Amino acid sequence: MKTIIRNAALVNEGNIIVADLFIVNERIEKIAPSIHLASAVSVKEINAEGLYLLPGVIDDQVHFREPGLTHKANMYTESKAAVAGGITSYMDMPNTIPNTLTQALLEETYTIASLASLANYSFFMGINQNNLEEALKTDNENVCGITDDGLYFNNDEGILANYPDFLEKLFSRADTLVALHCEDDAIIKNNTNLYRKMYGDNIPFIFHHKIRSEEACLTATKRVLEIAKKYNNRLHLFHISTLAEANLFDNKIPIREKRITAEACVHHLWFSDKDDERLGAKIKWNPAIKTEADKNGLLAVLLDDKLDIIATDHAPHTIAEKNGSYCKAMSGGPLVQHALPAMLELFHQGKISLEKIVEKMSHHVAEVYRIKERGYIREGYFADLVLVDLHNSWQVTSENILYKCGWSPFEKQCFNSKIVSKFVNGNLVFDNGHFNESKKGKRVKFEKQR
Known about the structure:
The chain has 450 residues and is an alpha/beta fold. The protein has 2 domains: 2-53 and 380-390 and 417-435, Urease, subunit C, domain 1, CATH 2.30.40; 57-369, Metal-dependent hydrolases (TIM Barrel). The chain is built from 14 helices and 20 strands. The strands form 4 sheets. Strands 1, 2, 3, 4, 5, 15, 18, 19 and 20 form a 9-stranded mixed sheet that branches. Helix 4 (164-173) packs parallel to helix 7 (214-231). It is globular and about 75 Å long.
């Protein structure tokens, strides 16, 4: 299959240039101001004049719920939503049922994805205090990393940031990327007990960010950083939610040379405690959405390169699981379909450039994880591409939400930018609202040295 995208504004590596782009099968064959082919060559042409061509978003933190929790989501439904939202590759978490704590279970998830996923995929190997030897067998070139994220799903004691002795063992031996969730369990328990004394189980949602507080995040993050720096480990910290934490990271080191990296999530950049009363459980995430000052501060340090990438932490639950009292409502929400439109909305508000969005959602994700031949618009790279109309407004409604759970915290939000077309490995998988499901995504590959 050969395709030419003509006259697109390519947003890539800090520049925006108008050019033609030629795709042959899975890869970008040529980029030039004007591409001319012999008349005998059969090629599909796309006139992209006035549109912007971005490298596909790479989301390093999703919970697609398969196997075992498919009443909430599955790899097909959520990858379809991701594709519609401009995400061409994702990395999925191990809090499935059973938890992905053996190499055999890990490979089973790859098999499921190979049959169902419309986007490219990778899966984290889960690690807890009981499977260190198994986790250390993880293949750097074929697996994105090892993580504890989500493994506290039914166990509040599961966050490894609370076990420094175990982290010493892990960091002294791991040669792959370790990605962690950092909150202090003891502080959260004390805060929860305090508010339960006042409100019982019906704690108002406006106190979620005081229960899972700045202190809880900062204490755990400092603890993990101290140990990781001792061993010069390759550490990535998920969903930094406070400005105090973000200021712990270095912006003087080039991205390829950083041994410790960190991310912001879309919901922490968009929502704040000012939205708690209006949206309640729909924006109950762990770590919690914090204050307006944290929201604005996170964006500022993201632009200043203390935070390296933008992710979603897409974690769908059914609306029934989000309803009820504070103590019963589950934490997490769906985001992959609306993450890029939300960031493009911040562009329209003058808060971030297109070049920076691409850097943080594509280029730097590829660098942090050492992904091979993805994350950039380059000749020879896989043609993972998103064509965007920056001036085509639309509204999120229950009718156009693609998540299996059927709801979104962005419902009724109007966005000024619309995703027009989407290529995954050169395949036009999404075009003006229509899906081509004839080809599935591929397993993402990585450099051996992390």
